[in-house]
Amino acid sequence: MNFAHECLSVPSLIKESMKENKKVKSICGCAMLTALNVSVGALYIPISPTLRIGFSSVFAGVSGMVYGPMLTGFAGVIADTLKYMIRPDGPYFPGFAINEFLTGFIYGCFFYKKKITLPRVIIARAVITIFINLILTSLWLNILYQSPLFTMIRLIKNIVMFPVDVAILYFALKGAQRVNLK
What we know:
This protein is mostly helical. It is 75% helix and 4% strand. The chain has one domain: Orthogonal Bundle (Arp2/3 complex 21 kDa subunit ARPC3), CATH 1.10.1760.
């Protein structure tokens, strides 16, 4: 994986993935994966009021692989809103919708029309873990609750869950490739 080439290809990847937004088949398939994301997102293991373990981002990864960064990013915003409507816990905060958009967008950039390899999955998951889970989510929680105490707990949880998340995502993407969702 040539990092410079990957970064330079992102604008053309985004442009190409925008074509998916006009295909009924893509919108329906993405909607089904979003429904799975919402369903699984409602089922999580609560650790504390602000810390939970869930696996709904796997469906964002599969959607990103099949439908690209833009459609998956927009679907993430819809998924976040629906998850909140189904199971509201705390005030609605749009920062978490931004997180969901970025998660889908990042997965799309890493997986759309690319060969799924373990190093690619590890790097994609690391970017999401560091940038979204540790930095942005901690920032949003600090804005909401005015307490920086969440960061250490989130760090431990993300370190423990990283190999589990990578393994589940890798096998889900490989399985989706075999099924050929398109």
